[in-house]
Amino acid sequence: MNVVTVLAAVGVVIIVALACYAGYLLLQLKKQKDLQQQHQTLAIEKRNAKIFESVDTLCLAGIQGQCDFSELSIRLYNIMDYVQGEQRVDFDREYPALSELFHIVKDMPRSEERQSMEKRERMKHNLIRNKAEARLNDTIVAELKVLQQSVKPLNQQIDIRMVS
Asked: What is the Rg, in whole angstroms, of the alpha carbon atoms belonging to the chain?
């Protein structure tokens, strides 16, 4: 009987020790997951900040008339698609004029491909693009100003440091 009691006590001690160790490991796992989530959030914020810096520059170029709106709408629409997390924007809903112009010109040939087109076809595309740009001009400038203001407060360099 005495041996049985000793073995039972040793068994209980081993089970309690293993349970404590398992609890410790679960706590460490939770800390690691929280740390990974913090790092992921910081990485997304840093990436978004770089995107917003580019968006700010593009908006300024458009507002100042340094870039045609067709090219600008393509660049902005595509770059804003890379924004992640809570800062993601429904571009079609938030900026309808820029979005409309993007959808008009997105499939039109650009650069060398455009130069290799037949002159008549190129002029047809120019007419469609120029009409859309003229019709949407004032609204696009207003949307660029709104977009620029919306990304400015978010456009910060975020330091990523080790969190322990």
From this structure: 29
**Angle, in degrees to the nearest 10, between helices 69-80 and 96-105:** 110
Give tens-digit pLDDT for 124-157.
Answer: 888 999 999 999 999 999 999 999 998 886 555 4
| Residue in 9, 51, 47, 38 with CA at minimum distance from that of residue 161 | 38
Token pair listed for 82: 């890379």
Q: Is the pTM of this model over 0.70?
A: yes
Alpha helix (H) ranges present in 64-95? 69-80, 91-94
Instruction: Report the alpha-carbon distance of residue 163 to residue 66 in Å, rounded.
Output: 43
Residue 110 CA to residue 129 CA, distance in Å, equals 12
Predicted confidence (pLDDT) per residue in 102-118, tens digit: 999 998 887 788 778 88
Amino acid, single-letter form, for residue 105: V
